[in-house]
């Protein structure tokens, strides 16, 4: 499987900012997923609120 990554220098050192697997960007994939979730909610504000809640729940679950 081919994998490439994009690295940027930050104040804390170098950070991976995007990952490409088989030519597909993780950043672009996440942007499309976020946009779809916001669109499905009915209103932009409701969609953003639901997306934030989903991200918080995912973060909490992965911390356990």
Spell out the blueprint of helices and strands:
Blueprint: E1 3-10, E2 13-21, E3 24-25, H1 26-40, H2 44-63
Antiparallel strand pairs: 1-2, 2-3
Helix pairs in contact: 1-2
Cα-atom radius of gyration: 15 Å
The major β-sheet equals:
3 strands, antiparallel
**Span from first to last CA?**
30 Å
What's the order of the H and E elements? EEEHH
- Strand ordering within the main sheet: 1-2-3
Number of strands: 3
Overall helicity: 40-55%
- Helix count? 2
Shape: extended
Poorly predicted spans: none
Domain count: 1
What does this structure look like?
This protein has 64 residues and is of the alpha+beta class. It has one domain. Helix content is 55%, strand content 30%. It is built from two helices and three strands. The protein has helices at residues 26-40, 44-63; strands at 3-10, 13-21, 24-25. It has a three-stranded antiparallel β-sheet. Helix 1 (26-40) crosses helix 2. The termini are far apart.
